[in-house]
Amino acid sequence: MDLFIINRYTDANEDNDVVSRETLHLQRLKQKIEERKKNYKNHTITPDTITLKEQGPSQDHKINNEISNENQDVPDEQDKTETNIEDTTVYNKSKVDKPINEFKVLGSTDFEKKIQVERVLPYWLSHAYRISKNLQTLTCVVEDQDWLHSTLKATVASEGVTHLFPVQEQVIPFILKEHKQPEPFRPHDICVSAPTGSGKTLSFVLPIIQILMNPLGHHIRALIVLPVQELAAQIAKVFKKYCTNTGLRVALLCGSAPLQKEQQQLMRYTQTLGWICETDIIVCTAGRLVEHLHNTEGFSLKHLKFLVIDEADRIMDNIQNDWLYHLEKHIQVEMQMSKTPHINWSTISSQKSPIHKLLFSATLSPDPELLEQWGLFQPKLFSVTPINDTTNKNIIKKYSTPDELHEHYVVCSAEEKPLIFYNFFANLKWDKTLCFTNSSQSAHRLTALLNIWGSGKLRVAELSAALDRASRELVLRKFKQSEIDVIISTDALARGIDIPECDHVISYDPPRNIKTYIHRVGRTGRAGRKGTAVTIVINNQVHMFKEIIQSSGNNNIQQMVIQREVIDSLLENYESAIFETKRLINEETHIKVKKSIELKRGPKSKPRKRKHNENKSINRQQTL
Ligand SMILES: Nc1ncnc2c1ncn2[C@@H]1O[C@H](COP(=O)(O)OP(=O)(O)OP(=O)(O)O)[C@@H](O)[C@H]1O
């Protein structure tokens, strides 16, 4: 109240007046507070009154004074307060029936709990075509399928495939049916999410070949884009195999050969016709595709019918050279150039048919925002996992591993890690094993250690980005031919690579995310074969690893316990093997450093031959 006392030099009567006015004012305020309390109890208080209530009686006074001061027409202070109280009461009365949440109170301190917006997926994502995971009881006999061309049936049989896998059984007839529709109808684009090793490759290879087979001339009509060279080479090999007797040609553009050589394989120049295409199906890496779009003369996608993106989520994460933008731009420019001013039947019928987009991956997230960038036309999703958006969010994230895969993890200390690792080979006698580390240096060290420790009995090879492509292919070939027992690799080999002979996968370093985990363990347990995957986890990594696994909704992983005595039994040669490995690595580093210094210095200058000047030497002798 002191704040509102204005000291004036007046007589005693005037002072009494002020006191009585204040008392009256106080009474009215109390009355007002009582009134508000009543209102509050009845739940009919307006938001304005709530604000006033929160600020307490002294604030009320202040606010009322402020309001009244603004009112120029009010003659004296007493009247002012009276009017204010009445005004407020009238105001409150007028709003008394309105619900409390009708107005937003700015600056109000009680926060309303926000209603969480439920994620609603587009219909095509929430209502996927379900694919079975069961590769043990197959019912789709290849020979009985009328929709498959006899030439293809013959090749499929020659590859030893008698039954189609569930993903193939669903996706192949769907694509074929979509392309049977007459011209104005456009095929639905598709996304396929099925476990590793479930046969996704054949589910796009077979329908594409069947639709394009026996061409009249060669044009690029199918483009298959992959994230890495090895994968592109693998898919091109499958296409080449199944294109036998179909008149189709396949080209691999992935940077394994020089650009010029790839261009020769792709286009040919003739005096009469200009540039002629030599291929029908291109299997490429995204980066190399952009190079050809910009540098290869005559490279035309006017006739492109299929665009397949394998390992689509990986390509989405890392759009190499902005390839999709360049591809679409190239197609747009070509379409504009081919437009004629006259519209007649021949120009309409010769117009380019839309490109059918097919996306495949074992870890394709049904994220509408990510999928949006592909510009899919009325897409359909084929998925193994149920995607029911409204009930359980975890289900949306779920990735599936093959039923035949046994997943384990081992917890140990950092010191025990190499011993635990070696136990799988020394005691459990594992061969045909693929091991993953998180860096190429780590892969190199581990390879050296195992080779020394196993003293030649265990055949171990390294496979990382540090090696050139020819060496990597050689390692894979030797592994397939059982000339190598263990491959130590980085994640370069984690995705898509098909090694049917691989029985075990060991993650020496735990994977950094769930997708890497799914693809690593997916190198075994493929095509219905049994496989075992083990992840070695250091004590302080257990929490992180479990979180990664849970994010996929995977409950199949089990802890493996290795007895202390088993580890102790391996200690005998351990020290010496570690010592020898360190020595070897140091020696290698020393050689590398020496080489790089030599390279920096440039070629050694040849020692100049001195010309013997007889006169000079004679003179020098004289002076000496
Ligand atoms: N119908 C079939 N019968 C027998 N084997 C098959 C059949 N279809 C595919 N395979 C074999 O299964 C293996 C895995 O197939 P594929 O590479 O297509 O799997 P994927 O689903 O693409 O796996 P990833 O996601 O790891 O790339 C291959 O060796 C392939 O030859």
TrEMBL record:
Gene3D superfamilies: P-loop containing nucleotide triphosphate hydrolases (3.40.50.300)
Key words, A-Z: ATP-binding, Helicase, Hydrolase, Nucleotide-binding, RNA-binding
Name of one Pfam family that matches: Helicase_C
GO molecular function annotation: ATP binding; hydrolase activity; RNA binding; RNA helicase activity
EC number assigned by the record: 3.6.4.13
Catalytic activity: ATP + H2O = ADP + phosphate + H(+)
InterPro entries recorded: DEAD/DEAH_box_helicase_dom, Helicase_ATP-bd, Helicase_C-like, P-loop_NTPase, RNA-helicase_DEAD-box_CS
Function summary: RNA helicase.
Domain notes for this protein: The Q motif is unique to and characteristic of the DEAD box family of RNA helicases and controls ATP binding and hydrolysis.
This protein's name: ATP-dependent RNA helicase
Gene giving rise to this polypeptide: jg19276
